[in-house]
């Protein structure tokens, strides 16, 4: 039995989930906590399933996904080339380094009123907030990736008369890719958090707006169902990114000493 479980580690995750749901169901049912504040798991899961039959749910889901993905992809398109350039050319680093370090500590939520004043409360505002929240982590990961490249590799490429574009394509980018992918994976979680938060603060649509509306109307099961939906959305983003990461960095994972 022990060998069977060790060969199937996903069983441990399922067992933990069952224990969690059992405790969630029993504590309000037995009166250990107020069922008005924490409804039983069956009540919440029933409401979670019902929302997928609601035609108004899918436009909000699509809007949130497009806002988060749009801001994240735009940040990656800007931050990766700029981070590589800052790591390779000291003059570029001096040009942008102070600005990046200045805006780095600014909380993303503080940017929502500014973005709303500039772009209104439409999609452009939410995309811009996600972009600003994720562009710095991706840029810094790209910058660190270049700085960790062995200088001998660059010197060897120059010895063979490689042009600068060739050095970027054949040396810097492959060597820095593990750092870049790590920055992207961290940033995609930030993108979802910031995107949902901006919808909660100021939006007329999206999953974040649905959660806030349920809270204001005291629809507690719907509130918990919305939170579960957001958790599954984050899980979906993460799993999708892991699949892409395995395809891009398969060679790197095989060289790792420990592979989970």
Helix/strand class: mainly alpha
* Number of separate strands: 0
Radius of gyration: 23 Å
Round the mean pLDDT to the nearest integer and report it.
86
Q: What shape does the CA trace take?
A: globular
Note the main sheet.
none
Compute the separation of the termini in Å. Answer: 22 Å
CATH topology of the largest domain: MetI-like fold
Q: Which H/E pattern describes the elements? A: HHHHHHHHHHHH
Short précis:
The protein folds into two domains: 2-38; 45-254, MetI-like fold, CATH 1.10.3720.10. It has twelve helices and no strands. The protein has helices at 2-7, 10-29, 41-51, 57-88, 90-103, 111-119, 123-147, 151-159, 164-201, 207-216, 220-248, 250-254.
Features:
single chain, 260 residues, mainly alpha, MetI-like fold, 2 domains, 12 helices
Can you walk me through this structure?
With 260 residues, the chain is mostly helical. It has two domains: 2-38; 45-254, Orthogonal Bundle (MetI-like fold). Helix content is 80%, strand content 0%. It contains twelve helices and no strands. The protein has helices at residues 2-7, 10-29, 41-51, 57-88, 90-103, 111-119, 123-147, 151-159, 164-201, 207-216, 220-248, 250-254. Helix 3 crosses helix 11. It is globular. The two termini are 22 Å apart. The mean pLDDT is 86.
């Amino acid at each position: 039995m022990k060998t069977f479980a060790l060969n199937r580690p996903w069983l441990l995750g399922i067992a933990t989930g069952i224990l969690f749901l059992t405790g969630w169901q029993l504590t309000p049912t037995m009166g250990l906590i107020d069922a008005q504040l924490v409804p039983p798991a069956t009540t919440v899961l029933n409401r979670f399933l019902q929302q997928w039959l609601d035609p108004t749910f899918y436009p909000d889901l699509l809007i949130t996904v497009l806002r988060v993905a749009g801001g994240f992809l735009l940040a990656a398109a800007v931050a990766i080339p700029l981070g590589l350039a800052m790591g390779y050319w000291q003059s570029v680093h001096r040009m942008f380094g102070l600005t990046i370090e200045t805006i780095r500590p600014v909380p993303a939520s503080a940017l929502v009123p500014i973005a709303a004043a500039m772009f209104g409360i439409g999609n452009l505002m939410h995309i811009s907030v996600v972009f600003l929240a994720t562009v710095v982590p991706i840029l810094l990961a790209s910058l660190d990736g270049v700085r960790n490249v062995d200088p001998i590799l660059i010197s060897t490429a120059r010895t063979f008369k490689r042009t600068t574009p060739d050095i970027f394509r054949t040396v810097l980018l492959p060597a820095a890719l593990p750092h870049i992918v790590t920055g992207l994976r961290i940033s995609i979680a930030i993108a979802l958090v910031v995107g949902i938060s901006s919808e909660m603060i100021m939006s007329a649509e999206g999953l974040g707006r649905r959660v806030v509306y349920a809270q204001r109307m005291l629809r507690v099961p719907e509130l918990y169902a919305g939170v579960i939906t957001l958790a599954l959305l984050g899980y979906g983003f993460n799993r999708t990114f892991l699949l892409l990461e395995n395809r891009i960095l398969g060679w790197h994972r095989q060289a790792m000493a420990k592979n989970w």
